[in-house]
């Protein structure tokens, strides 16, 4: 599939009379040098089977990178200040404060530093604390052809490193105070910057771009050596066949895979769905390119929505370490030890020494964060049907809701582990109500009893790592079409 893109570029990526010759010669191994930013070659490792068309980066003047500073004193576009690593006065006369932590936001392909999501993230960061927030605007270099934009990320990364090192030298700050948040190509820009800075504090990669980066050498892409802590969010890892724009493989110390890391709830699922949604969005909005982009890249863009929400949300975006997505879906991993759960997004904690792949589920619309509950039930006999739950707590009540999508055959000798997600935090659970709806299929229905005999029920409040048991569950009976309510042990028994 990579060669389809190669052919497309050879045929369509140029615009001059001699574009075919320019395209061929432009991909021959050579290098360019841009003063104190250094030299950049398009040879190995930047030329490989995973990047068959490799070009050198455009010049800094062509890319036109700007560093836009926002603080609580200058929080909006109208009050932004521009920092120039080659102009000390642009730093000394700005509101940059070396005593504060610095958050740096880097956009990706076709975006710019004034996109709404960038403004929203900046605002949420400044609500949280008095940070220096620097937005890297490289929009002139983030345009078609894509292969040129991927190459340009190397120069932007070098420029960003130059700015950070200048701030360390001139403004009394330190590398550990910097946190770069990069989306798509911006995540790899963060990596290129980090490899030029000793002990950069943190990089958060928001669905790092896959095309031309997946399976490449670590010098080409974001990797854990680029900062003291690298956390990565994967939201659109479907690969070429599903028009997935994000990386599949782990790239950080901690890699988060919300909803499995591929298709996000509320977004198109595969290539056919994505192209259909994109066409409809464009047509229904009179060929609005932004609406089309939102549909095609819905899962890819969901990563910055998750991160932005996580900054000030009371809901923790708890994720659990698991060997595979299948293990997580079966409810085998939703328990927290020192390093087996983490908070996805802004509050991922570097001090916990987290490593590995973490999974969680989200809602399809904002607020995206969910609280997770798991009901564990042991019983004497079998059943075939659907179980509904209502959970009451000190803050709220959730349900009744089905604990399985379809009828489930359950054997009495096994423990039933059923996970439930909700936007609502019930607080401390007080009562649990279960309703059993037996399947009514002829012949099969008579094979299972009308009443279900329990041995025990426990509730695991996963985000709080708390286990609750219930009164009078031993040999309790739930009749078909009826509900039975149990009180939390210690509340009334």
Automatic annotation (TrEMBL):
Ranges in a coiled coil: none
Organism: Dreissena polymorpha
Active site: 184 (nucleophile), 207 (charge relay system), 300 (charge relay system)
Keywords: Calcium, Disulfide bond, Metal-binding, Secreted, Signal
Entry keyword Isomerase: no
GO cellular component entries: extracellular space
Annotated residues for binding of Ca(2+): 221, 223, 226
Cell compartment(s), UniProt: Secreted
Pfam families, alphabetized: Lipase (PF00151)
GO BP terms, alphabetized: lipid catabolic process
UniProt keyword Secreted, yes or no: yes
Protein name, UniProt field: Lipase domain-containing protein
UniProt-recorded Gene Ontology molecular function terms: metal ion binding; triacylglycerol lipase activity
Primary site of residence: secreted
All residue ranges annotated as the Lipase domain in the record: 31-368
Domain of life: Eukaryota
Family: Belongs to the AB hydrolase superfamily. Lipase family.
Signal peptide positions (record): 1-18
